Amino acid sequence: MEVSVNEVFRALASPLRLKVLRTLYNERKRASEIAHLLGASSEQLMYHLKQLKKAGLVEQIDEFYTLTDLGRRVYDLAAELEVSLKLAEHEPLILDGKGSSVPLRLYLQALHFGVYGSSAHSRIVSRLESYVEEIFGMGASIVPEVLALLILLSQLFKEGVIDAGRIEEVLVRRLRSRCKSSRALELLSSTRLYDFVVLKLASVHINPDSGLSLIYVPAQHIEYLRTLLRSDILMDEVMLGISDSGQRASEALNTLLAISRFLRTSIALHAEVLEGLIPELEKILEGSVHTHPLLVIRVRGSNELTTTALRFLTRAINRGVPVLFSFQELVPSAGMLAIEVGEDITVHLGACTVLVPGLVAKSRTLGREPGDLLRGLAPGILDLFKLSKRRASLWVSLVTAGSTGVSLNAHISLAGVEDAYVAVHKIRRKDEQFYAHQLVEWAQDILGKLEELTREELAREEVHASYTFFSPRETIAPEKSAGRWGVNNISPFILAKRSFEEIIALESSLHMAVNPAPSILEVRLREVSAVQLELTLRSLEKLGVKLFTVTKTNLAYCTDCGEIFGRELPRCPRCQSVKTDHLIRADLVYAPSADLLPGYFEEAEARCSADRYFASEIGS
Using an 8 Å Cβ cutoff, are 20 and 35 in contact? Predict the structure, then answer.
């Protein structure tokens, strides 16, 4: 069928026909669906479909309408022309998953047809436009669609306009997203790690799309973070490193503020610059609990923090802000990925966690030593990070285009060490001091073996590996790891009914034996004051503990307004709502107990408190 240029232009003369082409661009639809989405009558729509068919832009297959190859090419040209005109008007653009740029208003219109159907109102569209313009305020003229979608939908969810199920529908339809777990399994099928993961002897935390799990960006290189945010695939997490309190630090914090509502974020601050950044930090911490970044305070000595800084940190902890203190360069991110903070940008490839109790049980079944299975695991771990490195190469080259130093990181960890130790040695804890000495030595030895099997080969790949006992909770296994050791994954020392004095002795021994410290001590306090915080820092520094987090234990969360307050209050002090939930420290960040796996709340509440320990320290 021959079609003239005149017929094509005549077909495009109607705004409604352009909307039909846009609606059919990604998938075929029935006439009734198109009419509902566009708010047109059946008679009106059938007339316009007839004109589009006559021009060869649309064809009908059974009851479905779809674009022809010509229709797709013509729509691409029309969209490109529209983009050019909008660029001349300086209207921001959304970059969709196909690499096409769509004007902001057109994108919002299409999104609202998808969310509301014909009930979309200009008032709602105008309100959503203001949310996107928050991001464009960073100075970007083009933003990836996934970024815009997450901001818009999270705000709609917060306002109660749509529910989680509807958000998932929109994301699947617009981004053509598939289950990340299945993509991760596809990646693992290419490695020698697959069988170990299926047997639940190992778990992984990776981004199967881009290979980029986390990016650590020092404040002086913030422009490279903006470059990555404009790309079409985002990382899972961002960590911002701040070593001074200059203008670049303020700009970097504002950038982090814009993305912290939809992306996991962490801030690594040097203690000496904290006081100068308190006003900017207060802005970030004004949001609800779901948006609080992990605050990592790098301390060379306990006397570095001023009284003003200690008071701010006390307020932050009492408001449900996750704060971690570090006397070393190796720290965990909010997603529990090990990262060495410094002056260079770091691209993190993800983590592989060896589940030691499962490894020990399997070695018994096979009649082999756990070390033999560990040697069998090592090639799979190496394959995994080599694949991740190849997938991350595009983003590495994007950053290195500016001649900036970039390092590659990988995280290898052990989980469930104490349970495995007890199973292997079958000993009772009669002599606690001897037991603790043997446990620390065994933990150190098994971590050293894992490092010996993998570090040299990863170094040849120019990948720096960190080895720890803390590990990300995310796993591609269909079920979460079983057993109490799988719940608290920040330390190898997790047996129940152990006092804080016993735990601190174990952590102190491990931190002095292994450098950098590979585990995190959790200091759980019912009440936190500036005096108590200062004492905690001084005491743990003397004991050689290099990595610890302070947890406020009696917090509640208002599900209506997001206010955080003490559990002793019967209702929210801000909005007077009685819809409240317990706030629990899950790994390194806080979360409402309703969002956690069954049994997690009870396990977290049962962990030992440090109140009595530090009360006696204050008294003495």
Answer: no
